[in-house]
Design a protein that fits this description.
Length: 218
């Protein structure tokens, strides 16, 4: 019908549909590239370009003495961090944790310590390796990138993190993970952390895969 009452028209425009279609293609392209093609020394570096450069800035600024990475995959991201640490002449112990040991393919000359861990057993693991966690030197950079029992991992490690240490919860662009890790009852909103908007908004407001999920312990 050509002529219609004002109240019958919703706030809608095909422009938004075009943008949504473009956005979907853009997200799919980055996901596919980071899962399948983004490499460091032949290993998978599963980071979008904005996230990777935010890590590069954080490592330079924070100068971590300890990195804890939950979610190793084949080791590409931890190897990239080790090489970045070396290039900056920093000293840092890197621990990376994953359920799947077979996939890990770190080079023999790397000092990265791989630990086989099913995240669901984190409390038992911490009991066994208490010395490791108690002895961690700050600043710590902790990365949750395994997406299984993320809240359990964060709560279990929290007592070992000190004021000024950093925690990144990756892939919170996924709204399910965002709500679960940040806003659920046992999410980080009820813990002693604040969002570092300098890094979250480095390339524009939350322009990375990590939405409001780069935290500094208070
Ligand atoms: C997204 S990948 C990690 C990517 C890597 N951090 C990077 O940036 O290249 C997620 C990893 O979580 C691991 N994972 C899945 N379930 C797990 C569990 N229950 N416990 C520990 N690790 C798990 C998978 O084996 C996989 O290697």
């Amino acid at each position: 019908m050509r002529f219609t009452k004002i109240e019958t028209r919703a706030f809608a425009t095909t422009i938004f549909q075009f943008l949504a279609a473009y956005l979907k293609t853009y997200l799919q392209k980055i996901k596919s590239a980071k899962w399948n093609h983004h490499k460091w020394k032949g290993l998978t570096l599963m980071k979008d370009p904005m996230t990777l450069s935010i890590y590069m800035m954080m490592i330079q600024d924070i100068k971590p003495k300890t990195i804890l990475e939950f979610g190793t995959y084949d080791g590409g991201s931890s190897l990239w961090m080790e090489d970045t640490i070396k290039a900056l002449s920093l000293v840092c112990n890197i621990h990376t944790f994953d359920i799947n040991e077979e996939r890990v393919n770190l080079p023999n000359d790397s000092k990265i310590k791989f630990h086989q861990l099913d995240n669901h057993n984190i409390n038992q693991f911490i009991k066994e390796y208490k010395i490791l966690f108690q002895g961690m030197e700050s600043p710590v950079l902790m990365i949750e990138d395994s997406h299984e029992n993320a809240n359990g991992i964060i709560r279990a490690l929290d007592p070992f993190l000190k004021s000024g240490d950093y925690l990144i919860i990756e892939d919170t662009l996924d709204e399910v993970k965002y709500k679960q890790t940040i806003h659920s009852d046992n999410g980080i909103r009820n813990m002693n952390y604040e969002i570092d908007t300098f890094y979250c908004d480095f390339w524009g407001v939350n322009n990375s895969w990590n939405v409001n999920s780069i935290f500094k312990k208070k």
